[in-house]
Amino acid sequence: MDLNGLSSITNQSEMQDWLAENLVTPVTPAITASDLGLIMQRMVEVSGGGDQGLLLFDLKNSNYSLQLSDKAIEILTAAPNTVTVPQNADVAFPIGKQIVITQSGPGQTTIVPASGVTINSADARFSLRTRFSGATLVKKSADSWWLWGDLGGAADVIKTAYINLTNTGSDATTSGWSNNVYFSAIGSQLALSSSQGEALGWSMTAAVGTANTLHFEKLPERALSDVNYPDDVLQTLWYLDGGTSFTLKLSGLNPQKTYTVKTAATDNAAGDGPTRVTVGGISQVGASPDFVVVKLTFLGVSPDTNGNLSIIADNTAGAAYPLLNALIISED
Prior knowledge:
By secondary structure, the chain is mainly beta.
């Protein structure tokens, strides 16, 4: 039995060959408890569970594809780089295999799957957040891995929709603002443009009393000169005729996130009172419009457990008609 050969074994295949060659009956010389301990220890090490829990980092300076012997990888480079998780057919990591990856240089490290491999992480983040961030890959099944750690990446992009409460057409053509279809019936869908809410998975519906109707109105052309809301956005509005309030319901939000909601209202009726706006149970009232833009900001608003958020406009503060011109909604 060649015990000296144990130290040269680097993978499970070599371990199997050694066992087939050396553990034959009768074993010569006779195997001892100490010998068996050495054999078992080497079997654990080549299967990825050795080193008594120590993490010995293997330094890499560029893109890297994981190998069977990897336990801890350190990426040190100034350039953006990738660590690729190969298919099981190419590198047969055992189920439960854990690999630690850290980024010690300024170049951001992104963990990417080879074709046919799935990596699951919270909020679909696959890049190490910053220098000295780290993450752990855990093999769940043949070509499926979990990724846990200090991650950033594409999911950190701020999600914002600029919603112009107007009908379709040329009434509001400002770049970056979505136009919405006219409410042809109570509860009809506000169709956010593909570059805005729909692209974020958000939608909006109107909910008002059955006897009430939301109306669209085009205000006279005039310069309102507001830095946050273009003139052609503020010159169009929705108002409620024959009722005290209307509700816009945002859907598709993330229940685990908070949101900032900004509203704008301006009217062309002198002496009219302000609209009260309630978002997430918090109410605010601005100054009386009278041709002035009234802007309200709601910070840290949480949707319900279904991802819905209600925006209510009412006339309890003196408005003849509760109205809104525009919304800006951002995921915090």
